[in-house]
Amino acid sequence: MLVRQERQGRHELGVRLGRLHDDELWKHVAGNCSTFARYAVKLGAARSLTEARQLVTLAHQLPELRILGPMFERGEVDWTKVRVAAAAVIKNPEDEPRWARDVLVLSYNPLKANAQIALGQTPTKDVTVSIPLDQDA
Prior knowledge:
By secondary structure, the protein is mainly α. It has eight helices and no strands. The longest helix has 22 residues, at 2-23. It is globular and about 45 Å long.
């Protein structure tokens, strides 16, 4: 239940960030933030500039996602999975039922690879590397 509420919160946050971005209201309250992404991070609405941009992009795509959008709104799927599937759905809307199934059953990396293939891209995999604090990457 808590995960569902958190996912619903991410949906609401993404939609609100998208509206704030589109209305350009942020420019009046951003202080010394030169971009919307910087403002979103300063606000604590996103953890990084990349995440802020991704949330806004997803918010703009949601109206085109007839199945995935409502699933995300109800908190059934994580925003990162919807984000990687969204581009493939927008390219081929008739494939959305398959993507809706895939976001439920696949982990992130296989889903991302399938979406990249559907978009004619070379599939990649995200990895996390941990190094000792006293080492410089």
